[in-house]
Amino acid sequence: MGDPVTLQVERLGYRGEGVARYRGFTIFVEGALPGETVEAQITQVKRSFAIAELRAIVHPTSERVVPLCPVFDVCGGCQLQHLSYAAQLQFKRQVVKDALVRIGKFAAEDVQRWVQPVIGQEEPWRYRNKVSLTATARAGRFVAGFVEEGTHEPVESTTCLIRPHAYDELLQIIITQFEQHGVRAYDEQSQSGDVRQLIVRSNHKHEVMIVILTGMHELVHGRELAAAWAKQMPQGYRLVSVIQQKRNDGKNGVRKRDASEEVLYGDASIQEQIDGLTFRISASAFLQVNPIQTRILYEKALNAAAISSQDVVFDFYCGVGTLSLLAGRQAKAVYGVESVSAAVEDAKFNARQNGLTNAHFYAGFVEQVAPQLLSSEVHPNVILLDPPRAGCGPEVITALLQASPQRIVYISCNPATLARDLRQLVDGGYALQSVEPIDMFPQTAHVEVISSIVLKK
Ligand SMILES: C[S@@+](CC[C@H](N)C(=O)[O-])C[C@H]1O[C@@H](n2cnc3c(N)ncnc32)[C@H](O)[C@@H]1O
C-alpha cells in the first residue's frame, strides 16, 4: 500500500483500465494502456488484486492519443478517449472473446471463428440522442453532469463530446433559468432541493424532450420555465415535450415504484423514425441512444433472424416495439414483452400508427410472462432477446429451451451475462452460429453484441 511501482501493462480490463502483474498480484491502473511501461502508486490492496494510480507514462504505446474532452480524466461517461479508435474496436472484440472463453467455457478456436470484427462508427463522436445527467447543488450553484467514476458526484463541464453540440447551449439555458427562478438541484447532505436528474432526448428532426426528475412535490415555476425554454431553443431545434417525473425515494434510497408524471409543456412523448417506421417514445421508455449504429444493429439482427412470412416471432424485452415491428413487417405474427408499462402502451400505439395488425404486446417481466406465453398454443419459430445488462437469467432460458424455437437472436450489452446464457442454450441443444459485436458506445468500454443461435437438428 502506497508503494511506487513500475509496471508493464499487459492488457485492458473489461472496464477499460490497464492490467499489469506485480509480485503475483493483478494490478489495475486506470489510464494505462497495453504495451506501456508506467509508474504508478498502489492505492488499494485486496486479497488477489490491487489498484494503483497512474503517476507517469515511461514508454507510451503508439495507440495512445490525446483525449479530446477536457474532463476525460475525471468524468465516468467515457473510458477510452486516450486510445485510438481502431484499438478501441480491437479491445471490444477481445472483451467479447474473453467472456465466451472464460465465462461461457467455449473452445478458443470456436470463439475465434464466431466473433466477427467490431462494426465501428464512421464518426465516433457526438452520437448520443439522449443524456441523463445527475444534478447536485455545489456552492449554491446548480451543477448537472455525468458522474465521476465510482461516485454519485456529477462532473461539471460546459461540453461533452459524445452528445450533440447543441446540447451544450440547451443545458446552459435550462440551468441558467433554474438558477434565476430559484429551482435548486437536490442536495444529498441536507436532503433538500428539487431536481435530481435532468434528461434530454432528441430525434432526427431535432425535436427535443426534457425530463426533470424530482421528488414528489410540485416544481414551482415548472410550466413557466418550460414555456420559456421553448422560445430559446438552439438554432434548428424545437422543444416538443417537458415532463416532470416525480419519484418517491423509499427508505435507504430504494426507489419506490409509485412514480408519477406531469406534462409541463407540449406532448407526453417524442417520435422517432427507424427504417421507414415511426415510433412514439414516452419519457420512461427505452430507446437505443446511438441512432446511426441502431440502424445497423437492427439490420444485422433481422438478417440473423431470417424471418419469413410463415414465422411467428417473439421479441422479449421489446421496449417501444422497435425491433418487434421491423420484424413484424416480414413475419406472420409478432409478440413483444416488456416490463415498463408506458413502453408497452407506446408499442401498441406504434403498431397501430404503422398499420401493423399482426403485432401483440404484453406488459410484465419476461421471467413471468415468457413461461406462460411459451406454454400457450402460440408457437414461435424465432425468438429475439434484448435484455438489460443482467441478461436473461435461468428461468427465461429454461422456458426458451422448452419452447425450442428454430432460431434465437440474442442482442446483449453485457458480454459476461451473454456468455453465461449462451452456455445454457448450447447445453440445451442449440448451436452458436455467429457473434457480431457492434460499437454503439464509442469512447466508452461498452460493447453491444448480436448472437445468432439455431436449434441443432
Ligand atoms: C436493452 S433494452 C431493449 C429494448 C428494445 N429491444 C430496443 O431495441 O429498443 C431492454 C428493455 O428491457 C426492459 N426490461 C428490463 N428488464 C426486463 C424484464 N425483466 N422483463 C421485461 N422487460 C424488461 C427495459 O425496460 C428495456 O425496455
UniProtKB/TrEMBL annotation:
Methyltransferase recorded as keyword: yes
Residue stretches making up the TRAM domain: 1-56
Active-site residue numbers: 413
Organism superkingdom: Bacteria
Molecular function in Gene Ontology: rRNA (uridine-C5-)-methyltransferase activity
Any Pfam family the entry gives: tRNA_U5-meth_tr
Family in the record: Belongs to the class I-like SAM-binding methyltransferase superfamily. RNA M5U methyltransferase family.
Organism in which the protein naturally occurs: Sulfoacidibacillus thermotolerans (Acidibacillus sulfuroxidans)
InterPro entries linked: MeTrfase_TrmA_AS (IPR030390), MeTrfase_TrmA_CS (IPR030391), NA-bd_OB-fold (IPR012340), SAM-dependent_MTases_sf (IPR029063), TRAM_dom (IPR002792), U5_MeTrfase_fam (IPR010280)
PROSITE patterns noted in UniProt: SAM_MT_RNA_M5U, TRAM, TRMA_1, TRMA_2
Keywords assigned: Methyltransferase, S-adenosyl-L-methionine, Transferase
Binding residue positions for S-adenosyl-L-methionine: 288, 317, 338, 386
Official protein name in the record: 23S rRNA (Uracil-5-)-methyltransferase RumA
GO biological process, one term: rRNA base methylation
SUPFAM superfamilies: Nucleic acid-binding proteins (SSF50249), S-adenosyl-L-methionine-dependent methyltransferases (SSF53335)
